């Protein structure tokens, strides 16, 4: 197992290098200059000399790749030493700008993943066992509605429902908190802000995982070794839990892991609905401002999250199916 893990870690290095090269050069290919936007973004005249000085201060007047003192070398070295630098637009530390938003997005992603897992695996299992019964039809209706219903629309409905209910009960409408509060500072304020975004995103998340669980388990239940176990007289509960369910969790693990990584990239519209200052909103702001340093740091952060998530998925594969780590 340790050898398998070591190989997977080694594969991360060329993936990160490739992502860094692609991100760096694609961002430089996009039209726009942060200095021009800062000084002449309102349509007023900007002195070319002032723009040149701004470019020199930000280091974007350096050549891209030719030589040691280049933008690409600065980018790679800063990323390797965890020194992401300063934002071109605000002048603040990128690590500080990302830090608080990363906490928010990570907590929402974890809560949505837990919500989806708690509902998806039991519902998908029951739906497969009770195939073509009224229970199966209810679960399938739940999953189809979750896939068809946008999470931001569900978020709007949740807010409207809470406004109406709290207004009738207390006489004052409920409004989501504006400022993010870490869980260890004030658990109640933290949960009151993030529980509803997690429910809105987790509903669609669980619908996808439920359908995957159902289809994977149905396929496994038709395998020969399941028929053999039934022919030997094993209890149906034992067959499902020990043989069928564990083998059917491989594709479900993939779906759950990839959805988690996707949520870490930021849900721009959902964040706007619930007034969350997460990674998605920071992504949009940095792209509109042509803030290269912030944008490439965010993209690399998401790339690292996807790579680590895939690594964890591979480890879970090897744990669920021992044949994988020996192949």
Architecture overview:
The chain has one domain (94-326): MetI-like fold, CATH 1.10.3720.10. The protein is 76% helix and 0% strand. The mean pLDDT is 80. It has helices at residues 2-29, 34-40, 48-58, 71-80, 94-129, 134-148, 151-170, 187-221, 224-231, 236-264, 268-273, 279-288, 292-320, 322-326. By secondary structure, the protein is mainly alpha-helical. The relative contact order is 0.13.
Features:
flat; mainly alpha; 0% strand; 14 helices; MetI-like fold; 327 residues
Taking the sheet with the most strands, its summary is: none
CATH architecture: Orthogonal Bundle
User: What is the total number of structural domains?
Assistant: 1
Highest CATH level, the class: Mainly Alpha
Parts with pLDDT < 50 across at least 5 consecutive residues: none
Shape: flat
* Integer-rounded radius of gyration: 25 Å
Average of the residue pLDDT scores: 80
In short:
The chain is mostly helical and 327 residues long. The protein contains 14 helices and no strands.
Annotate the secondary structure layout:
Layout (H helix, E strand, L loop, with lengths): L1 H28 L4 H7 L7 H11 L12 H10 L13 H36 L4 H15 L2 H20 L16 H35 L2 H8 L4 H29 L3 H6 L5 H10 L3 H29 L1 H5 L1
């Amino acid at each position: 197992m340790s050898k398998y893990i070591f190989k997977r870690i080694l594969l991360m290095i060329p993936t990160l290098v490739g992502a860094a090269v692609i991100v760096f050069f694609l961002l430089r290919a996009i039209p726009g200059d942060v200095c021009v936007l800062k000084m002449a973004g309102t349509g007023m005249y900007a002195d070319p000399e002032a723009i040149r000085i701004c470019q020199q201060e930000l280091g974007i007047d350096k050549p891209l790749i030719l030589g040691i003192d280049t933008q690409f070398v600065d980018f790679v070295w800063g990323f390797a030493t965890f020194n992401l630098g300063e934002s071109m637009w605000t002048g603040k530390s990128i690590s500080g700008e990302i830090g608080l938003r990363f906490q928010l997005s990570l907590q929402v992603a974890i809560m949505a993943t837990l919500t989806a897992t708690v509902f998806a695996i039991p519902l998908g299992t029951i739906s497969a066992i009770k195939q073509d019964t009224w229970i199966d039809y209810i679960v399938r209706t739940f999953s189809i509605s979750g896939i068809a219903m946008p999470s931001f629309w569900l978020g709007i409905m949740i807010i409207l429902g809470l406004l109406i209910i709290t207004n009738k009960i207390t006489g004052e409408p409920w409004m989501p908190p504006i400022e993010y509060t870490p869980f260890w500072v004030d658990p109640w304020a933290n949960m009151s802000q993030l529980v509803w975004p997690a429910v809105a995103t987790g509903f669609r998340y669980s619908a996808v995982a439920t359908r995957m669980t159902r289809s994977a388990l149905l396929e496994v239940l038709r395998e020969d070794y399941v028929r053999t176990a039934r022919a030997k007289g094993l209890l149906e509960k034992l067959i499902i839990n020990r043989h069928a369910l564990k083998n059917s969790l491989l594709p479900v693990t993939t779906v759950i892991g990839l959805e988690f990584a996707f949520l870490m990239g930021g849900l721009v519209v959902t964040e706007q609905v619930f007034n969350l200052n997460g990674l998605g909103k920071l992504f949009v702001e940095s792209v509109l401002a042509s803030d290269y340093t912030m944008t490439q740091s965010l993209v690399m952060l998401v790339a690292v999250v996807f790579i680590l998530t895939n690594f964890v998925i591979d480890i879970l594969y090897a744990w669920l199916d021992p044949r994988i780590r020996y192949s």
